[in-house]
Amino acid sequence: MDQFHEEKHEENMIVPRRRAASEIKLLRLELIPKGKTPCEEIGSEWSSAQPAENLSPSKAAACLGIEVWAPASVVKKRYKTLQLRYPSDQFVEKHIEWRPSADLLGNPLSRLNWFWQSGFIPLPESSLSFKENSLWDKENAEPILDSYIALKRLSEL
Amino acid sequence: MLNLISKKIISEITNNFELFEKYLYTPTSIKDFKKFLINYRGMKVPGTPQSYNRDELSKQTAENIVNFFINIFAKEGLADHSEEEILIILNEVEMGVNLSLYYWFGLNDRNYQFRTLIHFFELDGVGSVFLTKNKHDFAVSLSEDGMRFGLASSEHEPKYMPVSKVCELNLFTEMASERVLFARIRTVQREICLLIDDWEHLNAILAVEYGRTFQDFQNLRTKKAEEDHLMVVSKMNARRDTLAQWCLESFCDFQEWIEKLFEFRKFSDDIYSELQAASVVLLSGLQKIFLPASVSRHRYCENVPKLLERYALSRVRMNKDDVSSRLLLQACQSALGKVFDATLFDFVDKKPFEWVFSFDPSAAIKSFSWSYSKELHLVLSAIYGVCCFKKSLPNPIDINFLSDIATTIQMPETFPADSNLNRKIYENEVNILDEKIQNTFKLLLNFIDKNVKDSKNTKELCQFIIKNLQPTQEALNGSIS
Question: Which domain of life does the protein's organism represent (chain A) (predicted)?
Fold first, then answer.
């Protein structure tokens, strides 16, 4: 039945929102109050915020050697370790482009904000295979809900 | 929770899910489908070339899907029950099946959904009667919005079970390990994101359809174009109500779940910040629900403020000093004809650091402004206005806030005449001469006088706000003299 494309999920664990939705995004602008941008920040309707992060969460995570959904404290710790490896005067220069990414990953609000603004949906990491000795593994993630699981859970309600 | 027979039927569908999925995949055997899928945007595609092959397969698929359910109904002895019971069971099964279809997409392509199949094979409305009992016909039919089970005469919109019902929210215990907790909270975050995505997608489809027929009507000015347009409008309005209720049911469940978790107070900071993020993403989703009302002036049915009230109550329980949630709550309660809570005036007197303004409540005030008295709307808008100013002090107010205050005040008159005469409008009594109300107005006028940066734009906005508040001041002076 899969006679044509079997698209693989991107390595960065996010899939674009439905193509249809993004294609008619322009029309959706109509639905947004005048004087407000479509790139609103989560939690506020009037923000003029633009996506602050050019790095995708997956790239940022790769720089730090962690998974996208690592908890804030893990990101901070990892960042600290990296910082210790370099003399302080070199660190800023070397990792200037990593700095926002640590915040992006460590703060759940900024992470969700990135998804919100980018039009991508976060997928669970359990759909991927995990590196050994990783700080983060599939024990921490629940599988994505699909129609079969939904039915099964309903029949057990 | 579900009827026992409904459960048995759903469980039988689950057992045969592979077969059902095979039917959903039938279009892939047609060569043209690939091209169709690439261009598909969630809407009917007029003029899909007919071919003998496709027409045959289309008939076959409809028959297969309909029979799939009919056979299961027969196997579980649905016909042995009374008509009332049958209706309840069919309704529950319909909600379950449609929720399952919400999660379904083929070939790893989110564009390939149940509605894609319906549109490709042009099966909208196809169905068949499977049982007649005491002159009542029960039918299974297919529609672009999902499966329909029930009386053949009812062309109801397909109903969906709330997403939250399959998220195992009650499986949670305080003793769970931190890792499990993370996974739980993230699942909920993801489900919220997916639901909002679907809400936007389905609303975008409605907007495009609306735009198309509206343009046709403008250009052609024919009776037929007008009728087509009105039909699209009425479908759009009905869909907006259904979709909003469906999303809000889940949102309320998620909100109450988050509220419960916050009560535990034993988690690490990591967990709290995840929870906080989940709560905020939920709030953003909620703001989207207002858009059809606050921007497109749709009048939501009464169930929508009822659900929003439930959501707001939970937020107020979490933080009673949150003015935004309190205003949302009051707007919904007023839309349901409940009395005005005078403790809202306390915030007007309090210092700005004694309360929080967690989100912009203007959309909530705007959305239901048509459903209660003008005076009450003015009071709500004035409290909102004062709070905006207080949070900006000592700086002059941002022009966006100022324009929000003005547009909020203006809102009720911008709703077009209501075509539904049965809709309830409450005459919520407020005495505009009440001291607290007059104080609030005075305070707002005072702020407008002192805390607005002068410019051409702000001047107009200020004049508009003053014009709306002043008459009540004059009435007060009149009553004194």
Answer: Bacteria
- Could you tell me if B261 and B362 lie in one domain? no
Tokens of B431: 């005495």
Q: Would you call A103 an interface residue with chain B, using a CB distance cutoff of 8 Å?
A: no
Domain range for residue B66? 4-156
pLDDT at residue number A125:
56
- Whether A122 has its CB under 8 Å from any CB of chain B: the answer is yes
Report the complex ipTM: 0.87
Low-confidence ranges of chain B (pLDDT < 50): 480-481
Which range of residues forms the domain containing residue A93? 16-122
Split into its structural domains, chain B has a count of 3
Q: Same domain, yes or no, for B305 and B330?
A: no
Q: Are residues B303 and B167 in the same domain?
A: yes
Count: domains in chain A: 1
Determine the Cα–Cα distance for residues A17 and A11; give it in Å rounded to an integer.
16
User: Looking at residue B279, what is its pLDDT?
Assistant: 92
Give the distance from residue B21's alpha carbon to the nearest chain A alpha carbon, in angstroms: 10
The domain boundary residue, chosen from B318, B338, B373: B318
Residues B92 and B124 in one domain: yes
Assess whether B380 and B481 both reside in one domain: yes
* CA dist., res. B90 & res. B5, Å (int): 10
> Is A130 inside any structural domain?
no
CB contact under 8 A, B197 and A17: yes
Residues 6+ apart with CB under 8 A from B54: B30, B32, B121
How far is residue B96's CA from residue B80's CA, in Å, rounded to a whole number?
A: 22
Q: Could you give the C-alpha distances from A33 to B99, B239, B287, in angstroms and in order?
A: 31, 21, 12
Q: Mean pLDDT of all residues in chain B?
A: 90
B421 domain residue, yes or no: no
| B167 interaction partners in chain A (CB closer than 8 Å) | 145
pLDDT tens per residue across all 157 residues of chain A: 343 434 444 444 455 555 444 444 333 333 333 334 433 444 443 333 333 345 667 766 776 777 777 788 888 887 777 777 766 665 555 555 555 566 777 788 877 777 776 667 776 655 444 444 444 555 667 777 899 999 999 998 8
Which residue of B103, B186, B269 is in closest CB contact with A145?
B103
Interface check for A143 against chain B (CB to CB < 8 A): the answer is no
pLDDT tens digits, B45-96: 777 667 778 889 999 999 999 999 999 999 999 999 999 999 999 999 999 9
Q: Is residue B384 part of a domain?
A: yes
Write out chain A residues lying below 8 Å of B13, CB-based.
151
Are B145 and B180 in a shared domain?
no
Instruction: Give, rounded to a whole angstrom, the gap between the first and last alpha carbons of chain B.
Output: 64
Interface contact flag, B190 A123, Cβ < 8 Å: yes
Cα–Cα distance, B293 to A10 (Å, whole number)? 37
Residues in B closer than 8 angstroms to A46, CB to CB, are: 360, 400-401, 404
